[in-house]
Sequence to fold (112 residues):
Amino acid sequence: MSNYSIDSLKEIAGGDPEFMAVVAKTFLDEIPPDLASLEEAISNDNKELAYQFAHKMKPNLEMFGIDVMKQITAIESWTKTSKSTDAVAPHIETVSTTLHKVFNELKADFHI
Fold:
């Protein structure tokens, strides 16, 4: 079972396989560094930066139908609190694990 929705991608690309591959490659170019920055911001308790990266990633995660929106929203909410990084650790763990699976699936599916 895939961790992203090919249907969402097909709809956006109008079924154009070349455009789908471009969108997948762009996702793979942008999201891994954003995820790394998000993880680093959380580990450094930099809530402002964590919010920016979580928020920036949302449209791409939605576009690919990746089921981590609850966790991303929880991370955004955490940035508005005084809670420690422990409170957000399970959320970033789920996001990270899921996205690494998606990265591998996209590379395999689009031969990137």
